[in-house]
Specification:
By secondary structure, the chain is of the alpha/beta class. The chain has two domains: about 5-150, 3-Layer(aba) Sandwich (Rossmann fold), CATH 3.40.50; about 165-345, Endonuclease Chain A (Endonuclease, Chain A, 2-Layer Sandwich), CATH 3.30.870. About 40% of the residues lie in helices and about 15% in strands. The strands form two sheets. It has a seven-stranded mixed beta sheet, sandwiched between helices. The protein has a five-stranded parallel beta sheet with strand order 2-1-3-4-5, sandwiched between helices. Helix 10 (about 240-250) links the parallel strand 8 and strand 9. It starts with a strand and ends in a 6-residue tail after the last helix.
Length: about 350
C-alpha cells in the first residue's frame, strides 16, 4: 500500500489533545504524520518546517481559537506562514476548523492579542473547510479527507512505497503492470521507447502483440491532466529509415497536451541488439521491460537505481531538445541532421551517432 506523509499545522499548546487524536487517525489510516512534535532543537526552525512541508504530500491545517506564535522577521504567525508555504508549493490541503461551540465546550483559549491578524488569516483561506463541533468529528472522516486530497489532480501528491523489487513471471504481467502504473502517474513519466512499433511477432503471437499495444495506448491516453509525459525514442542506423523516423517522431503528438521532443540516438540495428524499454514513474519507480529478455523484466523503487536512471533520463531529455532545435532550424535536412549528430557526439563522445 502506498503511504502519504501528512504535515499537521496548528497552534500547539492549546490543541495538544486534538493533535494527538489526528496523529493517531493518520497512522490508523496507514499514513505518516509529521509535525512540530517530531522536530529537534534548531536555530532556523522555519527552514526546518519548510523542509518537512516539502517532504510531505498533504498539508492538514487545524484552526482553533488562537492565532499562535509570531515569527519575528515576517511579523506573521508560524501557522499562517506554514499555510502560505504549502499553497506556494501546491500541496493538497485539508482544513479543519474548530467551531465556537467546540471551543466553548472544551474550554479552549481564544485569541486576545492578535485578533485582527487572525481574522484576516481566516478570511484568506480558500476552499473546503470542515467545521468540527464535537470531539468525535475530529477523526471520523479522516480516511475520506485523505482520499479526497490524494485524488485531487490539481496538486502533486506523490506518496511513498517501501523499497521494492518486483519480478514478473511473464510478458502479460509486465504489460498489465506498466499500464496500471501509467494510469496512476501523478507528476511525470519518462518513457524510453527503444523502437517505433518494434515488431514483436518473433517473440509474441499476434494476439499478444495487439493486446499489449491496445493496453499501452489506453494507459497513455488516460494519463491525467498535469502529468508531464516525456517520450524519448531511439531507432536504427539505416539512413533512409532514419530520415523517415526523425521527421515522423518530431511531428508526433503535434498540438497534443503531451507534445514531446524525441532524441535521435542512432543505434546499430535493434534487431541485433534489442534494448530495454525503460519507464520512470513520478521520479520514484523504474520499470524495465524487454520482450526478448522476459525473465529479467522487473520494477524497482530502490532509491539508488531510480536516481541513476533519472539522471540519465534528464540528460537525454535535455539533449533531445538540442537535437530537435538544430534539426528544425531550417529546411536543409541533411545539414541539420549532421549538426544534431555532431552535437550529440560532442556531449557524449562514446556514443555512436
Amino acid at each position: 500500500m502506498k503511504k502519504y506523509q501528512i504535515f499537521l499545522s496548528s497552534t500547539i499548546e492549546d490543541l495538544k489533545y486534538e493533535r494527538n487524536e489526528l496523529f493517531k487517525s493518520i497512522i490508523e489510516a496507514g499514513h505518516i504524520p509529521a509535525g512540530m512534535e517530531f522536530f529537534t532543537e534548531c536555530t532556523d526552525s522555519l527552514s526546518l518546517i519548510y523542509k518537512w512541508i516539502d517532504d510531505s504530500d498533504i498539508f492538514l491545517l487545524l484552526l482553533g481559537g488562537r492565532y499562535g506564535t509570531i515569527e519575528e522577521k515576517s511579523k506573521l504567525g508560524f501557522v499562517e506562514l506554514e499555510y502560505k508555504y504549502a499553497l506556494k508549493k501546491n500541496k493538497s490541503i485539508i482544513v479543519l476548523k474548530l467551531s465556537d461551540k467546540y471551543i466553548r465546550t472544551e474550554n479552549k483559549p481564544k485569541e486576545n492579542y492578535n485578533i485582527a491578524l487572525y481574522e484576516r488569516f481566516l478570511s484568506s483561506i480558500d476552499g473546503f473547510k470542515k467545521i468540527i463541533d464535537e470531539k468525535y468529528e475530529l477523526c471520523k472522516g479522516m480516511t475520506n479527507w485523505i482520499n479526497s486530497a490524494i485524488n485531487d489532480h490539481n496538486h502533486n501528491v506523490m506518496g511513498w512505497v517501501r523499497d521494492s523489487f518486483i519480478r514478473f513471471n511473464n510478458t502479460n504481467e509486465v504489460d498489465d503492470y506498466v499500464a496500471k502504473r501509467l494510469r496512476e502517474a501523478r507528476s511525470i513519466v519518462y518513457d524510453f521507447t527503444w523502437a517505433d512499433n518494434y515488431d514483436l511477432s518473433r517473440v509474441r503471437n499476434e494476439t499478444q502483440r495487439i493486446n499489449r499495444q491496445q493496453n499501452f495506448n489506453s494507459a497513455i491516453s488516460n494519463i491525467q491532466d498535469g502529468v508531464d509525459y516525456r517520450e524519448i525514442f531511439t531507432f536504427p542506423r539505416n539512413r533512409t529509415e532514419r530520415y523517415y523516423k526523425v521527421e515522423k517522431l518530431l511531428n508526433h503528438f503535434e498540438g497534443d497536451k503531451r507534445a514531446n521532443y524525441y532524441c535521435g540516438y542512432y543505434e546499430t540495428s535493434v534487431r541485433i541488439f534489442p534494448k530495454l524499454h525503460i519507464i520512470i514513474i513520478d521520479d520514484k519507480e523504474v520499470i524495465f521491460d524487454s520482450s526478448l529478455y522476459g525473465e529479467f523484466n522487473c520494477a524497482t523503487t530502490n532509491k539508488n537505481i531510480v536516481e541513476i536512471m533519472l539522471a540519465y533520463a534528464k540528460e537525454a531529455w535535455q539533449l533531445s531538445h538540442k537535437i530537435n532545435d538544430l534539426y528544425m532550424s531550417n529546411e536543409n535536412v541533411d545539414d541539420n541532421l549532421k549538426k544534431a549528430q555532431d552535437e550529440c557526439k560532442r556531449n557524449n563522445p562514446d556514443w555512436e551517432v
